[in-house]
Amino acid sequence: SPPVPHSGGRPPPRKWEAIEEAAEYPESIRGRAKACSSMLMAEAVAMGPEAFRRHADGPVLLRNASDGWKLMEWSDELLTEQVGDAPMRMLIMPADVHPTIDAERRALVEPAASNVFFADYLKLLDRLLTTEEFAVYVAQLNLLRLPALLAKVCPPSALPADRLSMVNLWVGGHSMKNGLHFDNYDNLLHQISGHKKALIFPPDDMRHLYYGPTPIRRHTFSLIEGFANDTVHETTRQNVALINVFDEDVATRHPALAEASPSICDLGRRTLTLVLTPMPTSPLISVCAEASLERSPISDSLTHRRS
Fold first, then answer.
1. How does pLDDT run across 76-124, given as a tens digit for each residue?
2. Cupin-like domain: from which residue to which, for each copy (predicted)?
3. Which residues of 152-161 are buried (b: 16+ CB within 10 A; e: fewer)?
4. Which of 111, 116, 134, 169 lies in the 20 to 30 Å Cα band around 226?
């Protein structure tokens, strides 16, 4: 069995309806969010960068973006064979939302971390498929360390290859939710399997989203006792919002959110989210990515340096 925290007994299996319901944003956000525009990847390439930028109004979903990629043939068996003995960093949390908010300390609480082999992590996802025992997540797995997997990734020919700086893999379980944050890089998010929703705000909305210097605390656990009762201060970050966008009362608790202009991108298999940056000096996006209703959603992120 993989190295995971003791959970004190497994709860009964989750019903699919509960999983589906948990994978939605509150009505106060969902009810007024725009859907991302969409087109075929081939159409975007044929249009050319300048025409595409004029055409796009916010984030764009590019369909069939992973056509011909060898990684579309990935399976648990193939991954176990090729990189099953590769060590990686697994995040572990008591619930499927991270980070969570510590209102008393006005801090965000990040998951605990543990090293695990890739093959054991895949087994653990199966174990957690139907329970709320705890939640696990692999983020920013650098494929430059795993050439057997990197060889299956084909960045779009329209992108400048000399500016590609990172290729990271994310693997999470059902209903996994990631908190509101912004990245300082231009990102392309490919959805390889499963289903994900991304909540995206334009850079001008920063003043409505409760960003600022935020203390970061982290869960701790032991293999015998499980999660500790208290968390440990780790650092302070500027790129995470002190707001829970999954809270049904988020509009009441954070009234400035009503002035923001959300979009929701619904990513299925073989889609790519492209977010254009109108001002290169601004944070690219504010994103809350919610991983899927399905087993083992896998995402691949291509990060480009700005010119």
1. 898 899 999 999 999 988 877 777 888 889 999 999 988 899 999 999 8
2. 58-267
3. bbeebeeeee
4. 169
